[in-house]
């Protein structure tokens, strides 16, 4: 049976993107409230999850614009990975986990953003190969 779209663990990229956006939003909110943080930066994962959720929802509602909208989504995934790279600054300066939740959030953003971007690229490549 020939697949019509790229799937990872049985989910297409729209489903993965929706779940990833929700995950990021919840992560930021939970960390913010659990730590009683007064810092706006603890909400960065939530802020970055909103456009992923928004543009993926638009892609589902407007199939004719799906290619454009999903490319916008992958850009946010890449920005998340790049933003998460700040964890290396803490790691190399010897301050890793001094700000536990900040460093864990940065690590989460780096790992999940990189993996999400990888999945998006795999999806784009799958579509190209199967045209």
Describe the protein's architecture and organization.
The chain has 131 residues and is mainly alpha-helical. It has five helices and two strands. It has helices at residues 13-34, 44-61, 66-84, 87-93, 100-129; strands at 7-8, 11-12. Helix 1 (13-34) packs antiparallel against helix 2 (44-61), helix 1 (13-34) packs antiparallel against helix 5 (100-129) and helix 3 runs antiparallel to helix 5 (100-129). The longest helix is centred in the last third of the chain and has 30 residues, at 100-129. The mean pLDDT is 94.
Give a brief rundown of this model.
This protein has one domain.
Note the topology:
Elements: E1 7-8, E2 11-12, H1 13-34, H2 44-61, H3 66-84, H4 87-93, H5 100-129
Antiparallel strand pairs: 1-2
Helix pairs in contact: 1-2, 1-5, 2-3, 3-5
Q: Can you give keywords for this protein?
A:
131 residues; mainly alpha; two-stranded antiparallel sheet; 5 helices; 2 strands
Helix content: over 70%
Percentage of β-strand residues: under 5%
How many discrete domains? 1
Q: Major beta sheet, specifics?
A: 2 strands, antiparallel
What class, by secondary structure content? mainly alpha
Average predicted local confidence, pLDDT: 94
Number of strands: 2
Distance between the termini: 16 Å
Task: Identify the strand order in the major beta sheet.
Answer: 1-2
Shape: elongated
Rg, rounded, reads: 16 Å
Order of helices and strands: EEHHHHH
Q: Which stretches are poorly predicted, pLDDT < 50 over at least 5 residues?
A: none
Helix tally equals 5
